[in-house]
Amino acid sequence: MMDADEALELVKSGATLLLLDVPQYTLIGIDTQVFSVGPAFKGIKMIPPGVHFVFYSSSTRDGKEFSPITGFFIDAGYSQVVVRMWDQQEERLIKVPEEEEERYRQAVRSFEFDKHLGPYDLSLYADWKRLSNYITKSTIERLGFIEMDSCGCLRFQCSVVSHVFHVALLMFKPIGGEITVTYEHGMLKNTCKSAMERVLDEQLRNSKFSSPAEKHPKRGCYYTPIPRIIKRKGIESEQLTSLNLDKASTELLETLLVKDYGGSEESLLGELQFAFIAFLMGQSLEAFMQWKSLVSLLLGCTEANHSSCQSTVCKLEELNA
User: Fold this and answer.
1) Distance between CA 61 and CA 26 in Å, rounded?
2) Which among 84, 95, 214, 224 has the fewest CB atoms less than 10 Å away?
């Protein structure tokens, strides 16, 4: 049990997520924690600095049905105040003008909203760190979308939208890259899938919420393509067959690390965790496919013990421990 001084220090040093005008019964989540919005709820305080995943699902007035989940990553700084306001028409959280945002920040730092802010449960923070310890601001920027706002400034947002509780998917103009089941079946039409994945894909294709991927060219995340077949000039057919049977060979992993991850195994593991969270929290089939491809790649490295890739595979084992 922390005393008043410790709590005050955590409030001052931690980040704050100020959420204004959010309707009652809306589910608000951050990392592995979920809050049900009451009449006095205006956000979350004492958030440890670093990467976090914020997600939410609006509710009907009686709190019995919920909309699709929408989520976004933030990189919270020391004592930072992140402000979002509920747009009633679009039923989503939006940014507020900079001048207005600064006034809210000052109000938060003056403790005007303190009694309306729910505390981040620090006892659960270790669980989140195990899920996200390789995700950095660079990971989010690399996999997400950059857009120009009305002030001419670059802004990043990668949203995750999923269909849950069989509620109609709200169609709105996105302010950033999104993952949504309304078009994911089209993105995966040329991808080899397991029996379970084919069933899921068929359900998405036949869903009344589905629409072609071509209509949403700017949605989704920039996941790294994972080759399924290795092609090289001058290689013997027997060797080629062997390599393709072990498509996630050490050689392929080494090539990807250098070409796509700048030689950084942490970047690869960051993308692995990013995709897993997008799948786990946002129920994204595209994210699941990427996570599966990366895990298969790493687990298929039978020669990793004799290469620089050994530490990458060992770190994957640590993540699963």
Assistant:
1) 9
2) 214
Query: The sheet that has 27-30: what strands, in order across it?
Result: 33-36, 27-30, 50-57, 69-76, 158-162, 177-179
Is residue 88 predicted with pLDDT exceeding 70?
A: yes
* Cα gap 84→18, rounded to integer Å: 6
CA distances to 127, 223, 248, 249, 269 from 180, rounded to whole Å, are: 26, 15, 28, 32, 23
- Tens of pLDDT, residue by residue over 118-150, are 999 999 999 999 999 999 999 988 887 543 333
Domain boundaries, the chain: 4-133, 183-320
Is 4-133 in CATH node 3.30.420.10? Answer: no
pLDDT tens-place string over residues 225-237: 988 655 556 655 5
φ, ψ of residue 112 to 5 degrees: the values are: -70, -25
